[in-house]
Amino acid sequence: MSVETQKETLGFQTEVKQLLHLMIHSLYSNKEIFLRELISNASDAVDKLRFEALSKPELLEGGAELKIRVSFDKDAKTVTLEDNGIGMSREDVITHLGTIAKSGTADFMKNLSGDQKKDSHLIGQFGVGFYSAFIVADQVEVFSRRAGQPASEGVHWSSKGEGDFEVATVEKAERGTRIVLHLKSGEEEFADGWRLRNIIKKYSDHIALPIELPKEAAAAEGEEQPALEWETVNRASALWTRPRTEIKDEEYQEFYKHIAHDFENPLSWSHNKVEGKLEYSSLLYVPARAPFDLYQREAPKGLKLYVQRVFVMDQAESFLPLYLRFIKGVVDSNDLSLNVSREILQKDPIIDSMKSALTKRVLDMLEKLAKNEPEQYKGFWKNFGQVMKEGPAEDFSNKEKIAGLLRFASTQGDDGEQAVSLADYLARAKEGQDKIYYLTGETYAQVKNSPHLEVFRKKGIEVLLLTDRIDEWLMSYLSEFDGKNFVDVARGDLDLGNLDSEEDKKAAEEVAKTKEGLVERIKTALGESVSEVRVSHRLTDSPAILAIGEQDLGLQMRQILEASGQKVPDSKPIFEFNPSHPLIEKLDSEQSEERFGDLSHILFDQAALAAGDSLKDPAAYVRRLNKLLVELSV
Predict the structure, then answer these.
(1) Cα–Cα distance measured from residue 284 to residue 101, given in angstroms and rounded to the nearest whole number
(2) Do 480 and 538 reside in the same domain of the chain?
(3) pTM confidence score
(4) How far is 210 from 476, CA to CA, in rounded Å?
């Protein structure tokens, strides 16, 4: 071995220590995935070299035959994996093998519970890559040299997977990376050609470059040891270029795990080849679980981009809208230039056409999943529903299609599960109902018990209950579905249209006329607190509610804006009262204007609380209520 220089010992990042410990103890049931992860990384390194060599052919250093080799030594109890890809510099090694520079790391660590079964799912979801080597090895050595650097700048990294690692400079003639796993006692089964061959066929057959294993040849005359020969054990062709009829589900699933660095199978996938004006292939996947950085809109996302089978870019975000950022996959174009950049992608009209087609393909895939696998779609919605709700604002042309994929809780359920589609809602709408009714709020309990729903319960009309923070914003972009308008039951003057009989409407008008005096008295008492006072058509059991003006911001949007420090436009609620409620009848007969004012303010504050709002002056509310209680007890 070459002489080592500039040797130093460095400590792992805290998150790496935690990950190593949990991985070694949680993934014991599926140890063989270490090879899949290391081969996947080696494949990425070769892809990067192939791309960089387009503009700098000297990086190939005369060796253009790109491959991965896996070998073993039974006596030494080692498994070695070697690639002739881009390789790593000393700085790269310290950065990539000593830290986890991944968004969502803190959330990931917070979610680990110490329960081995649950944690193995989380670890798989996060992606373990290189560190999976420590599942079977008690020491791992890495020898690497970045393409284009001199042989004297090779680097040797070594660790036992505990608190630290060693890095030294060594001579390395060939570019690329060699990883040597010193197997733990009891893991000798992996130092076996047949075992390694089966693992490669099982997990890495789809890798689009040769993965070679040594085969023993007969010794030549005069030789004591047989000469070492290599044979390719995988198919070594890009999966997306093969006909769909030739590809098994297991192959699609393993390819997903390779590109997504995920342990779980995807929920669904769509493989398509487009020929004609544009020529490209795409293979798109819907993951089973959400990544930790799903709600960090700046986090890396997008498809792997190939041009004529040559890898060009990871996380090319221009091919799908942001609300579909959870989709994983590959797009391979025959029409783009090999020197394409992210800036060019944003301006190229070819990309707009591809983006439109790929977006429709994803939405069709989700429609099919919802129709054919409703239970699986429930799982999808739980993981990705809030992101899908960003769709109507971002993708006007597909608004109706996205709306059909949305799911909501409703007054017909009793557990708050978001399981009702808009098609379900309309299918069981009352005869003559020409609107889709909904109510937004902070919690399911609050909206389910809201006084705004009283008339709907009485008439048996279903109302959608929206409690996600994004919902009011969503509804500002959804005006209709299947020709039916959306109506917020807490906004404006409620009009039930054909669901109210002429007799009901006439009776309501007559009651309103008889209460004009009471309306004026309450308006005077509440003063600047309200924009309007009127007789309510919504209430059957409660004395009063606060309605929102037709053009005013709802409570959810006001709270979101206030929390982000933005200025909220001034608006005042509409006070509606139930003329047949005993408290309102008592208020109407009250002679003392002071007492009338106190009672009006108490009813106003109670209506605000029922709507989920906070009181502007809680002390005044308590004082008035206590005064009333004292008077009642005298």
Answers:
(1) 26
(2) no
(3) 0.75
(4) 53
